């Protein structure tokens, strides 16, 4: 694989009114990395991927593969493979024809092409003898995606670009293909850039991911970094369940229902801070027992309790300006009843403060 560097790429569409799809996006994707671009529909993911592919020209900015500036190179001159939503297979042709198509166009001799088709079909776990001569229309959705992957890998690309390739498949098949994709990436060493709006997919799959919103890059990091230390309110709520409570701070101290929280514990810049802050914490960080001398104590009324198997979701009200949630081990939450006033606890280290 090669590294992919995106330098201050901007794009505005001018056909139906004007839409600014990308605002000065910078990315540094390492060679052989499995990198996801994550964000809600319309945030610019496909636009960015098409620019990396060479299917679309940016208004400003450059794209580099290793040290080579490829900004002005068309897609067919870039060492890429693609699995895009709109890059469909030929349903009436065989698996063999679909995978060998690009090789024939590139002028590969027949026997070399056949060897390669065999190799890539084995790679995506579709044994040649069983599948090569089936028609695409005779395959399941998951098998079709494997063919699309085999076709994209046939010419041994340095970068594989995938745009929500599994979004139309059932959950179980999707999980299976995501595992397969990870294995493929390790086996081939190809740099993989995977676009998705699904935070679970991105977290399961990625070495690192970039979160985008409204054409602006919000944060880049490992799934764990981005989940536990989100850069802002958007990232916090997009990557899983988030409790966000707005509080007025005075002289660096925020007070919620009599509980004083010294903001300088979270960040030295917040000492003496006056104004609104947002307290962010994940439901699973709310503890049912704790040490009040060391932990933030939340006193609230249970208004809802949902059994989720190993965990139970508890919705609470009366601490802070909005309801918040706790996610507790079911065994520990048996005794908690709806309507009851309870005390729960937070480690200060599991709380993050946003100042907007
Ligand atoms: P995503 O893949 O994250 O859903 P897109 O890159 O497809 O986002 O789109 C980003 C923004 O650009 C959206 O507001 C979309 O409506 C707009 N857009 C995308 N393609 C075009 C186009 N060809 N002409 C005009 N606007 C477009
Ligand atoms: Mg898209």
Q: Please state roughly what percent of the residues sit in beta strands, choosing from under 5%, 5-15%, 15-25%, 25-35%, 35-45% or over 45%.
A: 25-35%
Task: List how many beta strands DSSP finds.
Answer: 19
The percent of residues in helical segments reads 10-25%
Globally, the shape reads: elongated
Helix segment tally: 9
Estimated structural class: alpha+beta
From the 3D structure, determine the CATH topology of the largest domain.
Rossmann fold
Strand order of the largest sheet: 6-7-8-3-9-10
Q: Ranges with pLDDT <50 over ≥5 residues?
A: none
Q: What do these coordinates show?
A:
The protein folds into two domains: 4-235, Rossmann fold (3-Layer(aba) Sandwich), CATH 3.40.50; 241-354, OB fold (Dihydrolipoamide Acetyltransferase, E2P) (Beta Barrel), CATH 2.40.50.100. Helix 2 (95-105) packs across helix 3 (110-123), helix 2 (95-105) packs parallel to helix 5 and helix 3 (110-123) packs across helix 5. A hairpin with a 2-residue loop joins strand 11 and strand 12 (253-256). The protein has helices at 45-53, 95-105, 110-123, 128-131, 141-153, 171-188, 199-205, 223-228, 233-238; strands at residues 4-13, 19-29, 34-38, 60-65, 68-69, 80-83, 159-163, 191-196, 208-213, 216-221, 243-250, 253-256, 259-262, 275-281, 296-307, 311-317, 324-329, 341-346, 352-354. The protein is α+β, with helices and mostly antiparallel strands and 356 residues long. The longest helix has 18 residues, at 171-188. The chain contains nine helices and 19 strands. The strands form four sheets. A six-stranded mixed sheet has the order 6-7-8-3-9-10, sandwiched between helices. Strands 13-12-11-14-19 form a five-stranded antiparallel sheet. A four-stranded antiparallel sheet has the order 2-1-4-5, covered by helices on one side. Helices cover 25% and strands 33% of the residues. Bound molecules: adenosine-5'-diphosphate and magnesium ion. Adenosine-5'-diphosphate (ADP) binds next to strand 2 and helix 1.
């Amino acid at each position: 694989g090669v590294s992919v560097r995106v330098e201050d790429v901007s794009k505005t569409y001018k056909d139906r009114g004007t839409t600014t799809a990308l605002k000065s996006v910078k990315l540094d994707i390492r060679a052989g990395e499995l990198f996801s671009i994550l964000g809600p529909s319309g945030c610019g993911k496909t636009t960015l991927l098409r620019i990396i592919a060479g299917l679309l020209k940016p208004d400003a900015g450059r794209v580099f593969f290793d040290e080579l500036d490829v900004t002005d190179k068309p897609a067919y001159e870039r060492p890429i493979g693609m699995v895009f939503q709109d890059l469909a297979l030929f349903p009436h042709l065989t698996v063999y024809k679909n995978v060998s198509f690009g090789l024939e166009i590139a002028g590969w001799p027949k026997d070399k092409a056949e060897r390669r088709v065999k190799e890539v079909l084995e790679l995506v776990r579709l044994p040649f003898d069983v599948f090569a001569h089936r028609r695409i229309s005779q395959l399941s959705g998951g098998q079709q995606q494997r063919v699309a992957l085999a076709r994209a890998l046939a010419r041994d690309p340095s970068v594989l670009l995938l745009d929500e390739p599994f979004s139309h498949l059932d959950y179980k098949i999707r999980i299976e293909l995501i595992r397969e994709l990870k294995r493929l990436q390790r086996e081939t060493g190809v740099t993989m850039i995977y676009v998705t709006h699904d935070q679970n997919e991105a977290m399961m799959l990625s070495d690192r991911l970039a979160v985008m919103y409204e054409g602006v890059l919000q944060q880049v990091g490992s799934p764990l970094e981005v989940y536990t230390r989100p850069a802002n309110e958007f990232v916090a709520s997009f990557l899983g369940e988030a409790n966000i409570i707005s509080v007025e701070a005075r002289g660096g101290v925020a007070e919620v229902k009599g509980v004083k929280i010294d903001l300088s514990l979270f960040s030295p810049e917040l000492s003496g801070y006056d104004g609104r802050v947002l307290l962010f914490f994940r439901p699973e960080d709310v503890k049912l027992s704790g040490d009040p001398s060391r932990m933030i104590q939340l006193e609230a009324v249970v208004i809802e309790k949902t059994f989720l198997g190993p965990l139970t979701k508890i919705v609470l009200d009366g601490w802070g300006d909005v309801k918040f949630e706790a996610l507790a081990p079911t065994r520990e939450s048996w005794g908690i009843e709806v309507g009851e006033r309870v005390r729960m606890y937070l480690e200060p280290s599991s709380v993050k403060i946003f100042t907007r």
